[in-house]
Amino acid sequence: MSLDTTLINRQRMPVDDAAELWLFGYGSLIWKAGFAYLERRPAHIEGWARRFWQGSHDHRGTPEAPGRVATLIRQPGALCHGMAYRIAGDVLHGLDIREKNGYLRETTLMHFADGSHAEGLLYLATEDNAAFLGDAPLESMARQIAAAHGPSGANRDYLLNLATALEDLGAEDEHVAALAKRVQHIKA
Ligand code: SIN
């Protein structure tokens, strides 16, 4: 199942092409920018936890065999580490297409290591989107990720690249670490 959110995103949060804004990445946007940016800084957001609960029918899976990719769920007290990018507004054209399988533009407060903060845009896939898969036992999520492939490559690479990027940032994420550990033991 999928729903193309490209047009919805342009309508619900219009951004001028020439504007400068911050983008917060917490999934593939940490380790695979693939767009032009003016500045890149590690950051975290509060009250959100990263979960592999969003289905990927277009990048890391297919409509018949969707993969699992990251989204965020509200969790009081949680910290989600990621990467902030200062970008020009026109970069959102490409990002809206990349994130079109259920992700909506939202704004968030990002915190930087020096104690400063800024408002940023992020792409969030909520549980009411058509591609949302939700929670499942760790073993079945790991098996689904280990088996799924899509036009952007193996789902396991998405997970393992994210786990490595988080380690490089010195960021702890038990959910990602547990999934990565399990997937590494499942044959490709
Ligand atoms: C993100 O990385 O911030 C959004 C989800 C993804 O593209 O993996």
Automatic annotation (TrEMBL):
GO terms for biological process: glutathione catabolic process. It is an enzyme of class 4 (lyase). Keywords: Lyase, Transferase. Its EC number is 4.3.2.7. One of its GO terms (molecular function) is transferase activity. InterPro entries: ChaC, GGCT-like, GGCT-like_sf. Gene3D superfamilies: Gamma-glutamyl cyclotransferase-like. Pfam families: ChaC. This is glutathione-specific gamma-glutamylcyclotransferase. It comes from Halomonas salipaludis. The lineage of its organism: Bacteria, Pseudomonadati, Pseudomonadota, Gammaproteobacteria, Oceanospirillales.
